[in-house]
Known about the structure:
Coiled coil: 76-131
InterPro entries: PRTRC_protein-E
Pfam families: PRTRC_E
Strand content: 5-15%
Region (Disordered): 175-199
Low-confidence stretches: 172-181
Order of helices and strands: HEEEHHHHH
Keywords: Coiled coil
Amino acid sequence: xxxxxxxxxxxxxxxxxxxxxxxxxxxxxxxxxxxxxxxxxxxxxxxxxxxxxxxxxxxxxxxxxxxxxxxxxxxxxxxxxxxxxxxxxxxxxxxxxxxxxxxxxxxxxxxxxxxxxxxxxxxxxxxxxxxxxxxxxxxxxxxxxxxxxxxxxxxxxxxxxxxxxxxxxxxxxxxxxxxxxxxxxxxxxxxxxxxxxxx
Length: 199
């Protein structure tokens, strides 16, 4: 007896283990159960897929078994492969999310440390300024290269401090000193009487 059953099974497009369970039924019928298992699929929902069950005579199975199972087996196989791909992508997304979260947490901690260092430096500048040590305060103002986001604030602070300790210009000194009021003739006469000569 020559059959091509296994050649036809081999031509089916599926991934996993195809399990056939054959049981003798009533009136010389056979009950055939077909279940596709895919151990690569990590999604537990695969366990909800029921087996295909057929109840027919041996002759009916010979004539139409393969055409009956072809579409469902391929559909179930595709579903489980998609479930596995989805599960892998989900796992990858979770891992990526964890990496991003750790990265964000690290950046947040670094920023907090940087902000704390900036605040401490500015507190020191305030303290020196209150003591009248304007040059030292100017030196302690943090470098703009370290804090580019606070560049304007740092420039203004340095300028304000340098104005307090800078040597005034000649014109600034002249403006700072109030001009002397010219003395009136009466005031001059009162303090320094003029000598008159008799002619």
